Model the fold of this input.
Amino acid sequence: MTVHFPFQNSYSALPDSFFARVAPTPVAAPRLIKLNRPLAVQLGLDPDVLESPEGAAILAGKTVPDGADPIAMAYAGHQFGQFVPQLGDGRAILLGEVIDRDGVRRDIQLKGSGPTPFSRRGDGRAALGPVLREYIVSEAMFALGIPTTRSLAAVVTGEHVIRETALPGAVLTRIAASHIRVGTFQFFAVRRDTEAIRALADHVIARHYPELREAERPYHALLAAVVARQAELVARWLLVGFIHGVMNTDNSSISGETIDYGPCAFMDAYNPAQVFSSIDEMGRYAYANQPRIALWNLTRLAECLLPLFSDEQEKAVAEAQDILGAFSDQFSAAYQAGLRRKVGLFTERDGDEALIQDLLDAMAKNQADFTLTFRKLSDAAGDDGADVRAQFMEPAAFDEWAGRWRARIALEPQTAAERQSAMHAVNPMFIPRNHRVEAVIQAAVHDDDYAPFEELVQVLAKPFEDQPEFAAYADPPLPDQRVLRTFCGT
Ligand code: AMP
Ligand code: MG
Done:
């Protein structure tokens, strides 16, 4: 079978300083373990061909398809607040871009496909565990309706990667609106290459924000648009209990997608200070810190754009500050509107914010499961018998709040059934719980058993449906199943 990728590459046409041309390094014995068939179709690719040995060889980086122009992208970034002037794709290679069925340009990138000029001391490889984790969580985010990179395929390489122990190697095929990051701008800003910043900004506008081409001040409008998308994105994360874990500027996408799933996790019990990542000792990227960090990252982006704003530094800074100033209100508006939907409010009244905050406070105090509390509350909107109170250590804490909630929803004309279905559509039953993800990884890595992975992916594809046969996937971990730490796994 011949594999045809209808590549239409644009990034590799940018100046040479933007990337390094490099092909994937072939691997010993690639085996396709998962192809995302609906996504393949969406991308205009033939899933049957991708599943053939020739397709698997491409998804493993063993052969380069016709029309590909493989590159490793250059970028810099602040990692935990420390600036690193050169990072770049150290273990990822962009094969090229295709235009999907909706007319959207999408990157096809291999992650774990071998060393590049940006690898520094890394081996350019990925271990199977983190590849499965990224596959599961990114696809779960998509099903939850949250902007994200996608996973097209996972391949085991037949080689081992050496981490603390020898682990099976794997390659993930990642799909993104683009892989341009805040750190991509920083790469050129630190080199004072204003022409490159302009070329990058023009590329980004054409690709992600075409409506801004007509704007009076397109670069200002670009910053404002990225600010708005990040504010919306982080609000969405908080509303499902997602913790990215490594919100470095190199992991902050200009298109507004969630990118780079490392030690990310969904929290079980609601705790605003929750951190899972083993490398986040200071809690910089804790759940509730994420909006603040997003703004910090956007401020780094703004600094890069200053030379495009004005030759007068002071004027440029004032303009940037003005644009960044919109973040807090945009975030709060998206977050509060999302919370109102989560508790089933159709209208906005004085006191709503405090009412909802009181629920969150009671949840935090009572270690209530974030996902199940809202799901059971959705049930309770249509049925007095639904057991929300069992989520609370002291169930009376919920009873007191529930009385106020019932009085508040009684002020709205919607029926109980209308409210319940609206709430079910925003409060998922299923999230990728850490202990489930961990169990799937263990089965794959130690027993070469992918059945648990397949089943978890299937359940998470319909997070808002009850799926009674899979009810156990909604359960929080038992005390001995609790995952306390997650790892980058690089
Ligand atoms: P990450 O923590 O995955 O966002 O990666 C941060 C930086 O380290 C990026 O420049 C990556 O390309 C690079 N990197 C991570 N893992 C590896 C690896 N195994 N080999 C080479 N570079 C890597
Ligand atoms: Mg990264």
